[in-house]
Amino acid sequence: MLSWNARLIQFRGAGKSNAMINDSDLVLIAGGGPVGLLCAWLLGRRGLRVRLFDNNTGPKADPRAATTHPATLELLAEAGLAADMVRVGLVAPIFQFWDRPSGELVAQFDHALLKDDTPYPFVVQCEQFKTAKLILDRVEKLPNVEVLFGHEVVDVAPADSSVAVDVHGPDGIKTHAGSYLIGADGGRSVVRKQCAIAFEGFTWPERFIVLTTPYDFEAERGYCYRSYFADPGAWCNCFKVSADGPPGLWRTVFPASGEQPDTEILNDDGVQARIQSFFPASRPYEIVHRNLYVTHQRVAATFRKGHVLLAGDAAHVNNPIGGMGLNGGIQDAANLSDKLVQIILEGAPDGLLDLYSRQRRTVAVEFVQEQSIANKKRLEASDPEARKHNLNELREIAADPARARQFLLRSSMLTSQRRVAAMTLDDA
Ligand SMILES: Cc1cc2nc3c(=O)[nH]c(=O)nc-3n(C[C@H](O)[C@H](O)[C@H](O)COP(=O)(O)OP(=O)(O)OC[C@H]3O[C@@H](n4cnc5c(N)ncnc54)[C@H](O)[C@@H]3O)c2cc1C
Question: Which neighbouring-strand residues pair with 208?
């Protein structure tokens, strides 16, 4: 394998225009999804100079995440961001578990039990493109932050006390140097790959299909804004988003074969058969959006390599049952930005970044991976005894306020945030 310098020279030798843009006090960010944008805003509002590159031509109407948990809302309270998410999203204090074959409501959890634990005893269903837009609006008011859409990071060259990236933009490839690079460039992160950081874990054999419909599951079937359905060998998440305003839309997420051709899964017959078999209705469902996702459970071996840091999906990916991926990414962004500000502006030790990696990897491995895998297994269990045990356990937890509070503290990611807040530089 070539050294970083050799690769950079090789890159330059490829005959591309390559002016070096050198800024040693600049923080570079690869990726303008919600995590990269949040880093840019949190660093920029403290006065740091930031340059963010995103390979899309502009903000993307990405329909993936919606559920934002109390622990994350607490971090987004600054400058009215959480309040704005409430304004453009939906407040969902309750979630439910249903046994699909019997139609029984097994358990209901109300975040009101957390009223003494958090100022946000509810989740907010806010589509991730809306969250990203709210952050971008704030970023655009900061003259010290540049957001460059249409710019793809193609190569990374870390040095001892800085980092350089080659970026393919409208004028060809240019090299940008900065003091630190944040890789917030999603699950297929070029930054992570270029730094040879392993992405440990596995890929689920089945895929996840998302079908979005205006069918009103609350009015027609009595489901709340976040409802989980257990079914032997199958499962469904059904949740509501505000979309362009009332009456909103409902998203259903189901497992889909990893081998069946996409066209068969996604054509009208395929999607009607899937949704009707789970939620029989007297008329065809109107499907306004359909998408198929390959889903992984993976965590980067480290979130820090020298002056390169990973955050968001670049650092960890998980199945969406329980809605924790982006929440974890937002928590990374808040943690990392705070530490970079302390290091760059206040002269704090660089070892804080090792603490960042340990804190956020701990959350990813011990909480998000474990919880999201357990959530999936609970819903898909097919062994009758296992199903009975799972559903009974949920019933019992929901019926006991002390146990229900502990369950909610964990599902709302408050437990994991408290765990990492207690970790210090000295625990290494
Ligand atoms: C069906 C589904 C439902 C989900 N629901 C939830 C939920 O309810 N709650 C939750 O917390 N999470 C949820 N998630 C997970 C969530 O969508 C992700 O965790 C989130 O998008 C991660 O944000 P990010 O900014 O890290 O990465 P991304 O959103 O992937 O953004 C990365 C950005 O980097 C850009 N980029 C990539 N490569 C480069 C490059 N080389 N140079 C420059 N730019 C680059 C990309 O174009 C993109 O704009 C869900 C996921 C799925 C699939």
Answer: 255, 293
